[in-house]
Amino acid sequence: MKFTDIVSNMNLDVYPIIALILFLAAFSLIMWGVLRTPRSVTDQQAHLPLEDDFDFAKGTTQENKGVSHG
Amino acid sequence: MSEHAVQTEASREGLESFVYDDSIVRMFSWATIIWGVVALLVGVIIALQLAFPAAGLGIEFLSFGRLRPLHTNAAIFAFAGNAVFAGIYYSTQRLCKARMFSDLLSRLHFWGWQLIILSAAITLPLGITQGKEYAELEWPIDLAIAVVWLVFFGGNFLGTLIKRRERHLYVALWFYIATIVTVTVLHVFNNIWVPAGLVHLIKTGEFAGPTFLMKSYPVYAGVQDALMQWWYGHNAVAFFLTTPFLGMMYYFMPKAAERPVFSYKLSIIHFWSLVFLYIWAGPHHLHYTALPEWATTVGMVFSVMLWMPSWGGMINGLLTLRGAWDRVARDPVLKFFVVGVTFYGMSTFEGPLLSIKVVNSLSHYTDWTIAHVHSGVLGWNGFMTFGMLYWLMPRLFQNKLWSTKLATMHFWIGTIGMVLYILSIYTAGITQGLMWRAWDETGRLAYPDFIETVTVLIPMYWIRVIGGLMYLTGAILALYNFYMTWRGRPDKYEETVHYAAPLAANYDGDPPAKSRLTANAGFGHKGDKFLQGNWHRNWERKPVRFTIYVLVAVSVGSLVEILPMFMISSNVPTISSVQPYTPLELAGRDIYIAEGCYNCHSQMIRPFYWETKRYGDYSKPGEFIYDRPFQWGSRRIGPDLAREGGRKSHLWHYEHFKNPADTSPGSIMPRYPWLLSKDINFPAIQGRVDANAMLGVPYGDLVLEGAAVEAAQFQAQTIAMELEEQGGPAMDETWDKQVIAVIAYLQRLGIDLYKDAPVSEEEASE
To answer: What is the ipTM of this complex?
Structure first.
């Protein structure tokens, strides 16, 4: 008996549903984790691209003119 | 050292100094714009051939079927690919506060990638191709891609993350991680093949020509090959043309707008949603084909779910410009970014729309898909690339942009050209789809002659040529602007020395969360700590672990779709009358693939009245079990060929290849005079049969030395004789020419379904 015969005879109807539940569970957890992150932390993280370099096009370092919305 | 970088020695205590490697960014930026012009030029040439077929000049290296893969590969892997590398090398160093891990790996990556592009530019016009869209490059180049991408690029990138001096991995870096991981998985699993020419050389010591040496057959066949290919094809769009550009959007838009991304939290949700959802969407390319319906339904549902994160990302990008919209009018960089992100929104709205089955029944195989792809690549990838380059070039060349006016002119020429291009092709696609399915009051097809559905498109094709020319002109203006900016560069580039503290080796993350509960048991306290969400912030600091999580996310979707297709035999019911191709038909099939016929002809009749009426019985999964690679195609500007066998005489096919307009007035198919003069590579036929036999095709005694060649010569002589009897040239002139092999293949297509099943010896004796 081949492995394909075994799999063919298994009822895999529930297989995509389990995958969907796994996806939703992981997604919900990540959403929760993200939404729980304090604003001050995400603000700091969002500013990373703006504090990294000297700007040759302007002759200055880039200035932060805004705030992240979380 | 620049003034701003001078700090007191005291303040530098405990800090490490480093300089960013911008020369590698300059190299990739130049490659981006130069290859971009090449890709667009080839695009204009093939667009012209559709409007004016004689433009191919009857030269094999310029034929549409061979140049179209060159155009798509150049646009994706040379133009967009080099742009991705330029953006990643620039932003990663700055986000990590570290020079790239290895200058040597950076250079090996650059030159290796350019060599791969050059190999593509040589092999594709020569007809050396795997015959799978966006995965055409043959096995030696595939191996080179694996090494350059994973070892040189991936290794260098991961090394940079590990030695970084910034604890938090900014969201752009996550998108880059997803790109590197997923493209590796896609490339490896879609390119598992048997190198037929190499195996033949090792086995027999016979060298059957350089073209055959590069020939391979995929281990997957038919339906399984189709699923793998579109799992690859769709996710190549997702993880080569979307995620790295989103990473670049999240880095370069804040830089250009001089304000942080609108919502960092939304960017995190955008990332995980895309990574989880995109990988499932591939089968929507195969609606109503012989792929099992459950697989296409899963693909459709996940595609529709993609709407939300894609638009979340688009809105996040556009709102990053809050308070800076006045600058959009003045700054060409922001203009390109705004239109680029808008096109991201439009094409990610259209993609899920096209994945809905009923819409797909109209759009599939039409130019609508081509319009969709071009709105994505020209609008999203192209304009994000140009925006990034206009922002980068002055900084890289340490000189003001030579002409802002010229850049603005580029923006307007490019935008108008793109709109002309896309609108004309939308019109063409919807026209095709409606004409194919139209029938009259008697229940007959309103446009039974396929040519009618093509000639009506010619005016739209001319508008496309004009639109494409305008977009190309814009890219040439950019090239000139960059060249002039480069000319004004300083004698020696200033290299700013940066200082940053190394990351502490014993950092354990944020202080552990404390339970806010008072009366619960241990489990409750643990749960409350978990719900405070610190664990995600810890992930974000651990690149290796983060990479593994991304790999798990993309693997789940892939395995759910792919494994059942390979493991459940009932998904592809076999048909006893379907037999392997004869050796000559196999050789003819390989010529069909080399000429890129799949770029215009499908081989998949969908179960619709208007399709079965036009082409015959709908295609069954079991008909393709010997098709390596599958040739279902993705567009029809020539008719479907799934049941072409026996429909027309050998002479008709012969004359058709000689000059299609003679047999089909109005046809836009190019002439193939070289098929009438080039010899069949008979010595290679044994190698072709042997390689297929290795993959399980029951070729029986044909694998014996010389048996396949003998059988092929016999069949070629038979067909040539029939051709002569039908009024064609003398048999002696044609029997060993390539056209005979292609005719043999075409006459075989789709006829096995109606044959009796072969009788075994036991049954015969009874």
So the answer is: 0.76
